[in-house]
## 1
Amino acid sequence: MVDLACGEGYGSDLLAKHAAEVMGVDANPDAFEHARARYRRPNLSFNRGLVEQFDQPADVVVFLQTIEHIAEPDGLLDRIAQMAPVAYISTPNRLTLAPPGAEKSDNPWHLREYDAAQYRQLLEPHFQGVELLGLFHARKLRLHELAIRAGWDRVHPKLRLTKPFYDRFIPAISARDFRLRGDELDRALDFLAVCEGAPRAEPRSNPF
């Protein structure tokens, strides 16, 4: 498994708890050194390099929350499709990240942000199949979301509960407080695309 744009390696380490072998790839020298020093497992390694130039074959490619930073994503997506039979590629949902009607949020590092239709349009020419899922709040985070709508953000500062509440609430959040679904994608926080890679060219047999 290859974790492209792995940053400081936290996600690569999580993947290595379950995968037979994981390689994290990132061009940032500080992130690379941190990852290599912090996360050590026999089945985990790190490679410093540009994701646009990485082309080692793998069983699975993971590429999370980075495609929005890429100036020319088509060439990279073609490369990913040839690298592995399956790729997991995620990006924020422009409709829930940016102000209403805006083309993108004010994040200066995001070159482009996508709604669900735009994301499909970006991915589908490069892969045999694309399943698009949305990430939503669940359990504690869903209750917190409903509390904010009901006015919680006006209450906790007045009662001086902000720090004690969030000091306990934030560490208690786990993967179970998120859900992946295929419906209501316009409301999703992020999109996760499960992409089936391009077929590898079969070697031609020698007729002689």
## 2
Amino acid sequence: MSRPIPLTDPLSVAWIQWCRNAGIPPNTIARRISVLRYMPTAGVASREDVEAWWRARAHLSPATRHNELANLRSFYRWTRRWEYRDDDPTLRLDNPSVDPGLPRPMTREDLHTVLNSMTNAPDRRAVFLGAYAGLRISEVARLDWADVDLENRELRIMNSKGNKSRRVPISPMLLDALLPNTGGNVVSGVTAHDTNWLARRIRKAFRRAGINATFHQLRHRYATIAYEATGDILTVSRLLGHANVKTTQIYVRTREDVAQAIAMAVTA
């Protein structure tokens, strides 16, 4: 099916409501809804139906197909768990191979250009949280002062991606950039931002500064600097909130001091 249709399949609707009740992040739920709209009979689909849907998605990029299949499989795990179905029609589908690529951290020069060009305080606080705490845009959008431990200088990131929570230390510089404590949302000072709205604002701010980058590249910057400074991928993975250290390997690059030592050694 080339165009999505409204979500009417009873099991699909029930799953999405279950996701909301379970506190699944809104962006994840939006992706799941999108997948199910292209698979409108997922609740009663046969293995042949699902495999036909998969063939119809062959024109999409491997990364998109990988994400769609992961979400559809999550749906069928739920149907089996709650005994709505006793089969998994995705069983014979193979995950497409996805090249993780290389990290593209924002450079120090570009970061300072962006910050120096920003006159909007909420936008500046959002960028600081991405660059100096490694937060996702969704985490930035809903961070409240109630989740800032001023005594221990830590951020409590609650129920983020994968329903995981973590603590992230904050430097005095970052804390200064976030203050004053309004008692509300850290970025807006009042209520939580909509993630997509905030992401669009930051993209526009980057363009106005003449920087071609995304908010996620701030997180890349945090991850690469943290790893290069310590070589401790497990701690970096924990601070980023990754469920698997293999995910962290996408964000970090070889420590430059080690790489330079290798370059010198092989030419000796």
## 3
Amino acid sequence: MKELSIIIPVFNEEKTISEILRKVSKVKIPNVSTEIVVVDDGSTDATASEIQNSEFRIQNFKYIRHKTNQGKGAAVRTGIKHATGDYIVIQDADLEYNPQDIAKLIMPILSNKAKVVYGTRLKRMPNFSKDEKSPRFLLHYIGNKFLSLITSMLYGQWITDMETCYKVFPKVSLSSIILRSKGFDFEAEITSKLLKKGYKILEVPIKTEPRGYKEGKKLNTITDGIKAFYSLLKYRLVE
């Protein structure tokens, strides 16, 4: 039986963390055991108490807390250090991604069709009636497609959604990889380094329910996009 570590980095998500933990704890995959690793990245709201109230109802649960906010990449790296699973998947603490899709991502691994699987949101055109109806989300869509195109050109494999949260990879793949990113540029770094190590990425379509910036979305399309672009170029040349 394989073990899957579900890493949940969280920062100031008091409104959603209990619900996402409830949903993640219900993920059942045949022949796969799961552990949940939550890393509270220095939250200043009631996130910590919400997590502590939930942990007593969840089996195979680990909770680590950063004293200060360090960034999503730093939180994921801490989660990886504490993970014991054969495979790792990253789950955002908001409710954009549906944890039931995790089983869909694991199936190609169980059937030996892939070792690394990404959940892609972008094997589609812009949805002007819903997701991309606002200029800000349309810019996010275009930026992500651009970064995915750059990834494909630099690393020789077609990728449609490099920025996706849902990345499943074997923990052993990181044995010779040093992860350095502290922020959202983690997505570009781990993708770059997995591809450079020769791992092929299989993409599986997923659907999400994007939340707006008023609801707490933290990604800054322009600032974080520039950092990701720089990381893609940098890691093509070094490490």
